[in-house]
Structure formats: structure tokens, C-alpha cells
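Handoff note, outgoing to incoming analyst
You'll be picking up this chain. Sequence as last confirmed:
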Amino acid sequence: EKNSTMKVLLATDCSEQATAAVQFLNALDFKEPIDLTVITALGDPYGSSPESTQHWFPELLRQERDRTELHHEQVVKILSDRCNTIHRISRPGHPVKVVLSEAEDLDCDLIVIGAQGHSFIGRLLIGSVSDSIATHAKCSVLVVRPDDSAAPASGGEVTRPNRLVIGYDGSHASQQAVEEILSLDWNCETEVELISVAPIYDYLLGNGLSTAAIANEEEIFKEMKRGGEEMKERVNESLVHTKSTVIHDQRVGDALVEVAKKDKADLVIVGDSGHSLLDDFLLGSTTKYVLRHAGCSVWISRLHRGVEQEK
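Most recent structure output, in case you need it:
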């Protein structure tokens, strides 16, 4: 039996991006009460030689703790009305290790983290923290990258996302991703596009295509169209502005990013089906691509893992 509260871990480095993530979380409307844990990693003392560490690390740590305490107080002010409980943690260590181990100890439902900015360098840097957390967490992860028109992090409200793009391929992981998104209350004007990406075989087989492969490709396309329409009906029960689209493409991640850009999406949702090392390797091609190239926030859903464990 799942708890009736939602366990959310908000990972923050006290930056503007982190404040934007706080505001994005505040704009979401969860149906269940939230038990929130706010966590900040204070840096890794072992990153430099022990001699130098002895001199400057304690002082640096004290400054970081003070800065973190102020930031956490700000977070509590913003989110206190939305949460059942708020617990604050700051500890030394590498951010990825600190966040992932805490998420596991708490048996979290969702990790929320701010992404680096829009610049190319920023996108490369995401590889180090947000990307690693998003890829290796056992629970769902929301990486917040607000668009340029969002309110600046220092003030003003960030509005609730109202344009959603969901990667849907009929798999259990993608079905549960939709269910996870439906576990929130959205504005009735929210627009949802379910995107199914049907494979292109000539990309894999060269030009010597057999008629069987072409027939199979058409069959898969029809099957995806059917599945997408069925899921659209399910989503339409609560969100009437929902459409289902099937597109032919060689790469799923690329296709999702293109649609999100065209739709001016606020949030892209992908279900992570990775269980084995091979799955995680293959997943890398879609989830990591979307994480690094989408111009908006990305929700990686792993709700299905919890569902499977309960069976």
C-alpha cells in the first residue's frame, strides 16, 4: 500500500536555477499532501590535497552552511503552504552522491532539481550533476529549466506549466508516465500532446528493403496510432485539450525535442524503462538526449518501478 503522502526531495545548490526549481514545484498542484525534504551538498573536501584542505575547508564549510541556511529559509517560506512537512538537510559531500543516497534512504517518489542555464556550456555542465542524478535515481526526477520568459528567479511567480509533451510508445513505462502526470491537478486549459515515434527501417537496413519489413513498419505505425488514440481517450477524461501524434523518425529523443520546440512546451515527460545495464545504455540515447537538448523542463517518470514492486 502506497503512503497517502508524496515524498519529494528538492535538491538545491542555492543558485538562481535552484530558486526557479522551487517556484516551478510551487506552481504544480499535487493531489496528495507533500512531505518535502530540502537538501544541499556542501562540496567535497576530498577534491583537493589534504594539506590545503586543513587550512581552508572548515572556513569554507562554515560560509556554505550559513548561505545554505538562509536559502533553505527562503524555500520554506515559498513552499510551507504546499507541504505537509518540510525537513532540511545540508551535508558535505559530492552533490550526486549526497542526493542519490538521501533519495534512497527516504524512499522518495520524486526528486526536483534545477538545470544549468541555456548556454551550450551550461548544457555541458548539466552532465555533472542534474544529468547524473536524473539518469541514476531509482525514482522519478523533474529537472527544471524555465524558459526565458519565466519570471526571474529573484522575484515574481513562475506560472504552472500548461503545455505538456509526453513521449508515448505503449510500453508499461510510458503508460505509467501518463498516470503519474494525471496524479496532479492541471488547469483545464492545459494542452497535452502524446508523441509516438514509429521506427524507420530503411535507416537500419539500407535501401535493400524487403516488402515484409515495409509491411511490418506500416503495421507498427497503425498499432502505435491505435495505442495513442486509446491513451488520448484516457487523458481526455480530465484534460480535454489532448491530441495524439505518431511520427516516423530514426531517433526518439530527437523527435521529442523537435515537437517540444514546435509546441513551445513547458514540460516534456518521458518514461524510463531501464532495468538492466543494457536498458540503461539504450535509455541513455533517449532520456539523456531529451535532458540535454530540450529547451524546457523534463520529467523522467519511474512510477512503473514502484508499481511493479507492489505487485
